[in-house]
Design goal:
GO terms for molecular function: alanyl aminopeptidase activity; metallopeptidase activity; zinc ion binding. Aminopeptidase N is involved in the degradation of intracellular peptides generated by protein breakdown during normal growth as well as in response to nutrient starvation. With about 900 residues, the protein is α+β, with helices and mostly antiparallel strands. Helix content is about 40%, strand content about 20%. α5 crosses α6. The two termini are about 15 Å apart. The structure holds arginine (ARG) and zinc ion (ZN). Zinc ion binds next to α3.
């Protein structure tokens, strides 16, 4: 247990005592026992104090050590020690060569860290600390080495042998085996090492860089999936071009490989020139992938490609600096998507995501700063805070510096630090130096956890034609941080006249706890459009009257705030109806009747949005969607999942009934006979049509359920089929069972697609859902060893089905807790990640809170609990 509780602190960072300049690895690949020989060229860190002990420590876990030699002399067993953490021996005086032989078992590696087997292929995942499961090594990102990798394997089962860099040799060996030698000229940390070997199909293309070099682009997939790589390949080429155009960054090798694997803990991994992807984020064709899948593929392919500079050429000094590469790279991929698609729609999506995932994290027991101060298990810190809030921090720098100033800072950063492992402070310093600006206060966003609250109060002086606005900020305490300082943030504000046009607009810089800003030349009392574009990633606390929100929904020149006004209005309406619901003994209709005037005004504003052909369809689709149940539950304490579910559905029904004709017209006008293309415009049209269908079905008229059922049967693309299925999914209509059966048949052998089928059923609001989920655990395609399956069935139940997960009788919690305990022995990283929903107990009523806390205690009582799960469960229970 003491090992589980070991906390690593940022302030304890020490430079490495020894560096590795060059690594030579030889893999003899076998599923059961793989032999790994490593030659490490080691020298002492010259900056290290003299007279300190000359012990060399190399990380290593769960391996069999066969031998260690130093300068070709084999060490006797008394000359080194091995424990659970690694290998120690005494270093010679001069630079030396260590040779280490280890044995590992890829087939038995269910954690999917290090070298493992996915389907029939060998692959690796080394970030953050997987390399130490392959061989003994100083497995920390500030040790950067060049790698030369020899792979020996059976030729018939592993015709494809890949590692980082360039292929420098290959050939046949005895016994039906063959080999390949790869050399990566760029020094890199061990977390960027990758190896793939298997019988994979390859799709090939090429890209000419801005300086005229031809780069071969290859995507490796399981046989039969060759026709599902086009979109990923196209996204890759567009990413390469975009990085040249917008950041002046060119690719630096002649080869770029992507491999799609079925078993993967996260989304994808940016290993140098050998990106490894969860197959879900590569494989797509119109009849297997939805518009949302295409969008995710585009952004994740871009994200991993962009890491070649923001992550690989310049990497992190230590894992506390993770946001150095992740926050920056998320910001880069968000901007790429904004340029490829619709900028406002992209921003809406990114903010909705931030509010759904990061804000709850920041307000709960797992709150931590963008640059954490401590961790037990670093894999637990690949979080929405490090990624998405980290991206907001970079976005604020971009807003404050403007595009040119930002680019000057970026240029200096890459110039100054190319080939180095650096810190978030180094990044900020480059931004400051290039722009002669002081970011001392802005940098508090790196160190201070919690979502700031922001209030505003306006005052119009007609005589002076002045509008004065006073902003007040406050951040609540978070675990381990009681005192919060005022932050520096850009707040974009627009003032609208009665005609709906802007009278004035500017971005102010808030630095004080309370601060006043003045707008001059304001000729009439304006309506305020506050925090346009979500320029500051905060919770705006000030309420605006219903009429102003309706006005903003119809007129704001900032599309983000048009959407935001609608979300605010809907949230307020739902929250007050929920209070009525609780007073009206659970009658959702009566609850809405109590706020009938506001409901009608809201529906009128929704109608205006729906019918406004001046707005793009993707935007209208987003603007018509009510805030989700999870989001609403964050706004209210205690959250009442039944009330939220029923009131939100009752409001959807009212909208569906009131606007039935308009939705019906929208539905039919947006049908398309053209062949499916995944571009943003066509996707927007499909999204608007799907929204209309959703409301029509919500109206309760049976003919619309038939319409959904017909749509499922008639459409030739997954987007329209899923749109139909996801509304049928909650009904008792015979079309539901037919469609699910058809889906299961068609995709029985297609893991990535069948995951949608598992997830749908886990998210159904039908009463039989939990029983069905339990049954599905026994489905031939389901296995606890595949993270996508676990996330689709079990994760989706907890996150996508608040009503059943939080069932009053505790059945949801009990089922879920059993699964986490079971999963911890298989894959601790995924188990830990899935534990977070149980940590939200403080948001619920006492009965539920007690059951959730008991569930966490049951997890903590598990024998041999992993460090991963222990950290999340213990912090969540506190
Ligand atoms: N660096 C990867 C990405 O953001 C994430 C890999 C994280 N994997 C992990 N097991 N922690 O693209
Ligand atoms: Zn990343």
């Amino acid at each position: 247990m003491s090992d589980q509780r070991h906390v690593i602190s940022r302030k304890d960072y020490k430079e490495p005592d020894f560096f590795v300049e060059k690594v030579e690895l030889v893999f003899d690949l076998e599923r059961e026992v793989t032999n790994v020989k490593s030659r490490l060229f080691i020298h002492a860190n010259p900056a290290r104090g003299t007279g300190v002990d000359d012990e060399v420590f190399l990380h290593g876990e769960d391996m069999k050590l066969v031998s260690v030699s130093i300068n070709e002399r084999r060490l006797a067993s008394g000359d080194f020690t091995v424990d659970q953490e690694g290998l120690r021996f005494t270093a010679p005086r001069e630079a030396f060569i260590a040779e280490i032989e280890t044995q590992i078992s890829p087939a038995n590696n269910t954690r999917l860290e290090g070298l493992y087997v996915s389907q029939s292929a060998f692959c690796t995942q080394c970030e953050a600390e997987g390399f130490r499961r392959i061989t003994y090594f100083p497995d920390r990102p500030d040790v950067m080495a060049t790698f030369k990798v020899t792979i020996n394997a059976d030729k018939s089962s592993c015709p494809v042998l890949l590692s980082n860099g360039n292929l420098i040799d290959s050939g046949d060996l005895d016994g039906g085996r063959h080999f390949a030698v790869w050399e990566d000229p760029f020094p890199k940390p061990s977390y960027l090492f990758a190896l793939v070997a298997g019988d994979l199909a390859c799709v090939e293309d090429s890209f000419k860089t801005v300086s005229g070099r031809d780069v071969a682009l290859r995507i490796f997939v399981e046989h039969g999936n060759e026709d599902r790589c086009d979109y990923a390949m196209d996204s890759l080429k567009r990413s390469m071009k975009w990085d040249e155009d917008v950041y002046g960054l060119e690719y630096d090798l002649d080869l770029f490989n992507i491999v799609a694997v079925s078993d993967f803990n996260m989304g994808a991994m940016e290993n140098k020139s050998l990106n490894v992807f969860n197959a879900k984020y590569i494989l797509a064709k119109p009849d297997t992938a939805t518009d949302m899948d295409f969008e995710l593929i585009e952004s994740i392919v871009a994200h991993e490609y962009f890491h070649n500079w923001s992550g690989n050429r310049v990497t992190c000094r230590d894992w506390f600096q993770l946001s150095l590469k992740e926050g920056l790279t998320v910001f880069r991929d968000q901007e790429f998507s904004a340029d490829q698609r619709s900028r406002p729609v992209q921003r809406i999506k990114d903010v909705a995501q931030l509010r759904a995932r990061q804000f709850p994290e920041d307000g709960g027991p797992l709150a931590h700063p963008v640059r954490p101060d401590s961790y037990m298990e670093i894999n637990n810190f690949y979080t929405a805070t490090v990624y998405e809030k980290g991206a907001e921090l970079i976005r604020m720098m971009h807003t404050l510096l403007g595009p040119d100033g930002y680019r000057k800072g970026i240029d200096l950063y890459f110039d100054r630090h190319d080939g180095q492992a650096v810190t978030c402070d180094d990044f900020a310093k480059a931004m400051e130096d290039a722009n002669d600006i002081d970011f001392t206060q802005l940098k508090l966003w790196y160190s201070q956890a919690g979502t700031p609250k922001l209030w505003w109060e306006g005052d119009y002086d007609a005589d002076a034609k002045q509008y004065r606005i006073t902003l007040t900020q406050k951040t609540d305490p978070t675990p381990g941080q009681s005192d919060k300082k005022p932050l520096h943030m850009p707040v974009s504000i627009g003032l609208l006249g009665a005609d709906g046009n802007d009278i004035a607009a500017k971005t102010v810089e808030l630095t004080e706890a309370t601060q006043e800003f003045v707008f001059d030349g304001v000729t009439e009392k304006p309506v305020v459009s506050f925090n346009r574009g979500f320029s500051a990633p905060v919770n705006v606390m000030t309420d605006q009257p219903d009429a102003e929100l309706v006005f903003l929904m119809g007129n704001d020149s900032d599309a983000f705030n048009r959407w935001e006004a609608g979300q605010k209005y809907a949230t307020r309406l739902i929250l007050s109806a929920i209070s009525n619901f609780e007073e009206n003994d659970g009658n959702a209709d009566a609850a809405l009747n109590d706020v009938a005037v506001a409901v009608d005004a809201f529906i009128g504003a929704m109608q205006a949005t729906l019918l406004n052909d001046g707005l793009d369809k993707a935007f209208r689709a987003d603007a018509l969607v009510l805030p989700g149940e999870e989001f609403i539950s964050e706004q209210r304490k205690p959250a009442n999942p039944d009330a939220i579910h029923q009131v939100r559905n009752a409001l959807r029904k009212r909208i569906g009934v009131a606007l039935m004709d308009d939705f019906e017209n929208t539905y039919h006008q947006n049908a398309s006979n053209a062949a499916f293309t995944p571009d943003a415009l066509s996707a927007g049209q499909r999204a608007l049509r799907a929204t209309a269908l959703g409301y029509l079905v919500a109206s309760g008229e049976a003919r619309f359920a038939d319409l959904a059922s017909d749509q499922y049967k008639a459409s030739d693309n997954m987007t329209d089929q899923m749109a139909a299925l996801s509304v049928l999914n909650h009904l008792d209509h015979p079309g539901r069972a037919d469609a699910l059966a058809d889906f299961e048949n068609r995709f029985a052998k297609d893991g990535v697609v069948l995951d949608k089928w598992f997830a749908l059923q886990a998210m159904s609001s039908r009463d039989d859902t939990l029983a069905r989920v339990k049954d599905l655990m026994g489905h031939p395609a389901f296995t606890m060893r595949n993270p996508n399956k676990v996330r689709s069935l079990i994760g989706a139940f907890a996150v996508g089905n608040p009503r059943h997960f939080h069932a009053k009788d505790g059945s949801g919690y009990e089922f879920y807790t059993d699964r986490l305990i079971e999963l911890d022995d298989i894959n601790p990283q995924v188990a830990a990640r899935l534990c977070a929903p149980l940590g939200k107990w403080a948001k619920y009523d006492d009965d539920r809170a007690d059951m959730m806390k008991a569930a966490l205690q049951r997890i903590l009582a598990k024998e041999d609990i992993s460090r991963d799960l222990y950290e999340i469960a213990s912090k969540s229970a506190a």
